[in-house]
Amino acid sequence: MKILILGDVMGASGRKALASKLPDLMKTNKIDFVIVNGENASDDGKGITKEIAEDFFKIGVDVITSGNHIWDKKETTDFIEKERRLLRPANLVNGSPGRGYEIYFSKDQRYKIGVINLMGNVFMKKTDDVFQKAKEICEKIKLKKDVDFLVVDFHGEITSEKMATGHFFDGIATCVVGTHTHVPTADTRVLDGGTAYQTDIGMCGDYNSVIGMNKENSIKKFLKDKDAVKHYPADGEGTLSGIIVETNPETGLAKKVIRLIDGGSLAK
Hints:
single chain, alpha/beta, Purple Acid Phosphatase, chain A, domain 2, six-stranded mixed sheet, five-stranded mixed sheet, 6 helices
């Protein structure tokens, strides 16, 4: 059983890279389940539309996670209620539309995979306590009792919060990945308890940029140049960035994790 997890899809560049590369990646690596963070997938890099989500599902994505930009497109609050394959952070305020975790089946319907979407508390939009929410969810979804495998997408700004989450879930989740900062970290590994981990799996988009945004305009913004405009995504060749987790069906934990960097300027 292999799970592919890809970082934040950034604008049209990320969508194009995903559409062109995902089918071959799945076939070559014999992928059984695909999770993609889609909160930056719209043309302006903020939010996701129903049309984009449906396009992702058509090419093989099983679950879309998200983060602080999940409500940037008004239509999302409507279709997320009906689309169980699109998750929002579980620790958003009570009453938020949609769901923050769910149980799915692998492509061959053989295995149950639980997916939990969390968002950090530090330097992020106001949310409920992420560690308390994690404890609550762990009482509801237990590895090898309720699900065969359990994956956590932690959408957060700071590395310490993400690493603490990784260790919190060590031995009780198959994999914990960090998203949001768009830059892949070099700490891909299996933790002591058997949980695959990476502090941030990066983004799917044009890395000849400033975290996916046009670099020239971003520099102007930092320089407070009067000619700077609202941030907009870079549109060069995109890189797919994420991990592939090889799992142990007997324990539900990870046997092996491989960092994935495919195409674009980051892979050169």
